[in-house]
Design brief:
Oligomer: homodimer
Distance between the termini of chain A: 53 Å
Strand content of chain A: 15-25%
Largest interface: A-B, 104 and 104 residues
Radius of gyration of chain A: 28 Å
Number of strands of chain A: 16
Shape of chain A: elongated
Chain lengths: 465, 465
């Protein structure tokens, strides 16, 4: 038979089983965190009609789209979860209640240039709150709490949420009559961390033709350690600026009531997050020890979710986590907690009799008790079966030989206890009700395993000390 | 602005929020059931190189493939989860431990003709056990237990698992020298339920040219109410037949130890499940009250998972649930349990003061207690907010007015209690610690809500009485 060399496309993440368990654990925790804040899960097709998906048109993204025809249909794979949300809300408007709070965790596709840590298929984990006509500022104030709770639940510790309000920059530009240079100026400001204040100021004056006075005022504001106070002093100069200051102050005022520690939060007036879309608060989240990674959770407030589909005004606020890239980074930085228990089962039953009724009955009893159980009935040597358990990090093995079957017992071996335990250590463990190996009546064996497994600590998937 | 009419492609399922919660609950229960049997989760890309995905080539499926080019690459969307598994096991062979037990729940794509209840994008929920060279028959005997446990967990009751062993039919064909007519005969046998024994026998004799004696023996076997006993009498005539009888008898013998009630199981010698792939036990699962739906969970034993990629012999056994179609059928038959609580939050906080600190702090405390909470701070009338809670079926509302904030209390309203409760009924509920409305110190309010929410019954997503 002619064989094809199997391969997975470059730019497509495919995990080994132990890694997949960690990834899935992260997804489960995201779902849980998002649910705590009253978001409902949503799923939309990965394929959409091109004319619908690309209604907004143009832009860098369009080149990256996976677009193709099937029959007469011009189809595209979704490149984010925001456009499908806009479509969804437009179609199902009359069936939804607003504010509509949804989360969606799903794969999106971008045919980017293949590069280490860049993926063509990747998971995004998004939440959005969509208002019908209006949306209160409290929704913007709540987002940092969701970001904080989510990453903390994952086990991340050294991160900081940075926020800005687009009305502040836009108000300043209006104040100085710089609206037409807004894009140019923002791209320059964005380089502040990379090239420093002096160079940014030089570019603002030389290339963007800002007067020294204006560029000086801008740079003062962008460089101050207390932007909120500095902004308060600028009140009354421009109504948009005032509104931005008011909103930023509301968002920061409620932080502590929302449970966000001050050290996990910072106002950063340089954050813009694109030119067209966001209109109010914008968010970025950085790993303090890995600034090179960039923002791991970004988003903001927008005024028109679905203007390409409907005349209805649908303002919203949302954030997105690029989960596949985050997982890659965590793996790369050795920040994944492999100690969380990635074994596919809790108990491996090793029958040693020809008739398997007793072993099978025990597997049924264990499963009914909620214990993940595998029967190992392959024709392999006993040693090979234990090596299998070891390789998969299965915590317990149960032996059922002639003696056990005859006496309705089971022998439970704790595979997590090392070979080199001293007798004293073993005795101390026994006093705690933990045995390296113990033979018990079948029902007691089930109860013993249940108790031992319940004692295990639930650890987060990220190790960040 | 020119607007595009938003639409979702036909053949693509897109659910409303309440439906999505039910769908997700089904997925969660499948994951849980599969995990109880020691299967590890897996995820593979939706896009594969066409040459890899279509290595097997030909067949009905190939026409349905979503195939396209991006740059120089000839790509295809996966049409099932089995070919990606074969690819995965071939690539990662040396990193895996065998038997390798994996489950995968993911979207697959088939450009079928649009038709009610047919989907072009649909979820499959698969499990497979892959052996390295050999795989014990016990793995085949365990599958009915997994099917039984899985559907029971979902809430389905009136279903039956039907099994056969391909070696029996193949052995009989060998015995009668009918190997070359196997396909034709099996297609005919498959019509037994539809057209009846008499017509099947006529076709077997007239079109397949079977002698009356052979067709009579075949029909006797296929029509008997006790095929296992009938088969035992046929032992010794052909070694393949003997092996099939032996395997079928092993699978049925251990059923009760595996916890499968006899009435949920049946041997059905007419089941073939395609010609090429399966070599041993094959499974179908039917809804007893809805035979028109066909099999809702099918699969079987195969000898060569990945012969197109590797010379390694990788036998396996697996089953697949077409989840999207199943969901459609359940919805169509009104068998989805909308009573399971599809609300996006447990508590809606309605602040009635300008300063929101108290309301926000309460939301934080509730979320820390694991209670799904939404703050409703929109500028709407009180009545509109209650209508919102009602429309989303939120079970509890919490009011925080001036009085409550001043006295550090919260007023909890149970929205599940109807307006028309008599005073007696209300008094009886109060005696159980359940109040239509009660004002409590904040901490007690959190504890009260926690207790009330914990009391709720966990119901399965399928209603099958």
């Amino acid at each position: 038979m002619e064989r094809i060399k199997p391969r997975t496309l470059s730019g497509f993440m495919e995990l080994l089983p132990q890694e997949q368990v960690l990834f899935d654990r992260m997804v489960a925790l995201l779902r849980e965190s998002y649910s705590l804040y009253g978001f409902t899960p949503l799923d939309t097709p990965a394929i959409e009609a091109s004319e619908v998906l690309l209604a907004k048109g143009g832009g860098e993204t369009e080149k990256q789209i996976y677009r193709f025809t099937k029959g007469d249909s011009d189809l595209s794979l979704r490149f984010d979860l925001t456009v499908p949300l806009a479509k969804y809300v437009s179609i199902h408007y009359s069936d939804l209640s607003f504010p509509f709070r949804r989360f969606q965790i799903g794969k999106v596709y971008r045919g980017e240039r293949a590069q280490r840590g860049r993926f063509r298929e990747f998971y995004q984990a998004d939440i959005d709150v969509i208002g019908d006509g209006k949306l209160d500022i409290i929704n913007e104030a709540e987002i940092p709490a969701i970001i904080y709770q989510t990453f903390t639940a994952l086990g991340l510790n050294r991160f900081q949420i940075r926020i800005n309000n687009r009305k502040i920059l836009n108000g300043l530009f209006a104040l100085y009559g710089l609206e037409e240079k807004a894009g140019e100026i923002m791209r320059t400001i964005d380089k502040l961390e990379k090239i420093g204040a002096e160079k940014v100021r030089a570019i603002l004056e030389e290339e963007c033709s800002l007067s020294p006075s204006v560029s000086g005022q801008l740079m003062d504001l962008l460089s101050t350690s207390d932007p909120v106070t500095a902004l308060e002093e600028r009140k009354g100069e421009n109504s948009l600026l005032d509104q931005g200051i008011e909103e930023l102050s509301t968002v920061t005022r409620y932080l502590s009531a929302f449970g966000v520690p001050a050290d996990h939060f910072m106002v950063d007036l340089t954050i813009a997050r694109g030119l067209d879309y966001y209109t109010g608060t914008v968010y970025e989240t950085v790993m303090l020890d890995h600034p090179e990674v960039g923002s791991i959770c970004s988003g903001g407030r927008y005024d028109n979710l679905a203007e390409y589909y409907t005349e209805k005004q649908l303002p919203g606020v949302g954030i997105s986590i690029g989960l596949t890239r985050l997982f890659f980074v965590l793996q790369d930085q050795k920040m994944l907690n492999s100690g969380i228990g990635t074994a596919p089962a809790d108990v491996l039953i090793l029958p040693m009799t020809e008739d398997l009724t007793a072993a099978i009955s025990l597997s049924t009893a264990l499963r009914q008790a909620g214990i993940r159980t595998q029967l190992h009935c392959e024709q392999k040597k006993f040693k090979q079966k234990l090596a299998y358990a070891d390789k998969l990090s299965l915590p317990f093995a149960v032996f059922l030989g002639e003696d056990e079957v005859r006496s309705h017992t089971a022998t439970v071996k704790d595979l997590t206890m090392g070979q080199d335990l001293t007798e004293e250590a073993l005795a101390a463990l026994n006093e705690q009700g933990r045995y390296k190996q113990i033979t018990l009546p079948v029902e007691e064996a089930v109860a013993y395993l249940h108790r031992r497994l319940a004692e295990r600590e639930t650890l987060p998937p990220i190790l960040d000390l």
